[in-house]
Amino acid sequence: MSESLVVRGRLVLSSSVVDDGVLVAHGGRVAFAGSVVDALEAGHGPALDGVPPAPGTFVLPGLVDLHNHGGGGASFPDATSADEAMVGVLEHRAHGTTTLLASLVTARPEVLLRQAAVLAELAEAGEIEGLHAEGPFLSYRRRGAHNPADLQEGSVELVRDLAAAARGHLRTMTVAPEVPGVTGPGGVAEALVEAGVLPSLGHTDGSTEQAEALIEQVTAALRAAGHTADHPAGRTPGPMTATHLFNGMRPLHHRKPGPIAACLAAASRGDMVVELVGDGVHLDPATVRSVFDTVGPDHVVLVTDAMAAAGVADGRYELGPMSVVVHDGVARIAAPRAAPGEPEEEGPIAGGTAHLIDVVRHAVRGGVPLVDAVRSATAVPARVLGLAGEVGTLAPGARADVLVTDADLRPVRVLRHGVDVDVAGA
């Protein structure tokens, strides 16, 4: 019989921090998580022998990132093989992200299908949880870093082809409600839910009413699907999400509230979970804190929107068909060179360069309680994926995915399925 794995430190649970806590895992699953006193009473005393207190560390569930385009120099939308894409997976895993969706960007249909097939290999191997398609049914005006030439109207055929190419591993897709063919009977939103894929509202210049129409349609469709075991994805997913709220959206205005107002209202009533790229670049920390205060941590997901430059040096990178320049850790679409004597223009932000634990740290420094920030990077995204109780938690029976950090929330140890991950250089 294999020995128990024991991790001791300040345990971050779903609603509290246990200062002298201990996690006991066996067979790749959590057997116990709580105070040392309770562990002794539960009969785990022998396993604790020789394991000293670790008051300077936090013990978190492994992080869950729903929106990630790569890292370590590897780009999921551009990888030519599963091995190449795995470089990005390992970059984030070494920093505590043990469950990840690999995100694509807008591209020609044949490119999307090819990349979906490449990434499906990693999903089938259990290295990633699945795929997120960001586009191509997005607003031209709010396209951000997406190639305008590859944007298109909603196509149910492409949805079905992409789901087939991903071999059942397409989990989410970002769509703009005002794009023709997205909402309404027989549209993209309906086809996505039928395929077991969660629509995510984003990159939109739509009105409040258009956003509300998509939210209402998707919410009703998910309820009609029953969230039952015979759902096409074989799980209980939902609710729908908003792709990086505020970014790639018409700004909130008191006379023209746009999609942001609809998303906040939907999140408040439990019909949506809103993504926040709280990396200190995409959003001001006060914005992140305000959204947590407004809709509550159970309706917020912290994400990275990371691209290939996460964890590596500044420089020039590719993000699908677009060239990106990273300077001082900020990724932007490469702008055309200015004429002599003219000021240089900055292109739009083109994804992030942070790891998810960095986003959690930024949120905490901005005033979000630690327990709330961690929950929004673990249990909440796990629930969106239909994995509640399986990942994103330290509850008994969950997969033994664990992130141990120092007091400043910097990784010192990562476990996945109870096995140590190489964190050298993390």
Q: List the strand order in the largest sheet.
A: 5-8-9-10-11-12-13-14
What is the count of DSSP helices, taking H or I runs of 4+ residues? 12
Report the span from N to C terminus.
33 Å
Helix content bin: 25-40%
- Overall pLDDT: 94
Task: Indicate the proportion of strand residues.
Answer: 15-25%
What summary fits the major beta sheet?
Answer: 8 strands, parallel
**Spans where pLDDT lies below 50 across 5 or more residues:** 227-233
Structure class: alpha/beta
Global morphology: globular
Gyration radius, rounded: 21 Å
Count every beta strand, where a strand is a DSSP E run of 2 or more residues: 20
Structure description:
The structure is a single chain. 27% of the residues lie in helices and 24% in strands. The protein has 426 residues and is an alpha/beta fold. The protein has an 8-stranded parallel β-sheet with strand order 5-8-9-10-11-12-13-14. β1 and β2 form a beta hairpin. The radius of gyration is 21 Å and the shape is globular. About 2% of the residues have low confidence.
Keywords:
20 strands; alpha/beta; single chain; 7-stranded mixed β-sheet; 426 residues
Quick gist of this model?
The chain is α/β, with parallel strands linked by helices and about 425 residues long.
Write the layout of secondary structure elements.
Layout: E1 5-12, E2 17-26, E3 29-35, H1 36-41, H2 45-48, E4 57-61, E5 63-68, E6 70-71, E7 74-75, H3 82-93, E8 97-105, H4 109-124, E9 130-134, H5 156-165, E10 170-175, H6 188-194, E11 198-201, H7 208-225, E12 240-242, H8 258-268, E13 272-276, H9 285-295, E14 300-302, E15 315-319, E16 322-327, E17 330-333, H10 356-365, H11 370-375, H12 379-384, E18 402-406, E19 411-416, E20 419-421
Parallel strand pairs: 1-4, 5-8, 8-9, 9-10, 10-11, 11-12, 12-13, 13-14
Antiparallel strand pairs: 1-2, 2-3, 4-18, 6-7, 15-16, 16-17, 18-19, 19-20
